[in-house]
Amino acid sequence: MNYGGVNQGDTSMTPEEYIEELKRLSIAREPERLLEFAVEHGQSLQDSMTCEQRQQVSTLAERAVLLAHLNEAARQKV
Fold this sequence. Notes:
Layout: E1 2-3, E2 6-7, H1 15-27, H2 31-45, H3 51-77
Antiparallel strand pairs: 1-2
């Protein structure tokens, strides 16, 4: 699967590229894709991330989880 300009399974991704893609998915309001992308690529990049970068990823993931829950609640009300 291709996420923006980043190919799934691309091991040459930098932490900066990873975070930019997470931000893009967050802005696009695609929480499920953001979480899928984070799980798929995050583990291999974790050791090369700074504390600040890890915090950014954590914040984006938390927002995605909340948005996914809100989306599901909205679907159930319809």
